Amino acid sequence: MAAHVSDFGLAKFLSESTNSFSISASLVAIKGSVGYIAPEYGLGSEISTRGDVYSYGILLLEMFTGKRPTDEIFNESLDLHQFVETAFPTQIMNIIDPQLIRKEEYEIVHDVRQSSKRYKILECLISVISVGLQCSNRSPKERMHTGDIVKKLTAATEIIGRV
Fold it and tell me: What is the pTM assigned to this prediction?
């Protein structure tokens, strides 16, 4: 299986096709997918890269938990971000999709005797989940900038490369 990355950003798509970002919230609702659209768009905010960062954060959380933002366990009082946040960082292994981790690595994480490898795997997972949480923050101002996302994820890849 090979992963493919695509630019699904609304901000870039709409800015190239129009002269301004004055797109109505109803148009955003039509173009976006439920669970991935930044909450501020429901309040009539203009499209921005911050909204794309939110969507990326949700996608990252989905990939590492195996849970979609539209799964039945989520409702008005619990969303994917909150679900992950409640387990972060101390209970992170309880929310990570078991299919994501090879059997050997899963055993390492639960084997106290292999503390060095265990620490690196957990450090990597915590780093990536942290990016997902920061990107999917409800407040656009609190979300990570794309350059910082790249730096943090690159550092996480280097950590896991040493296992």
Answer: 0.78
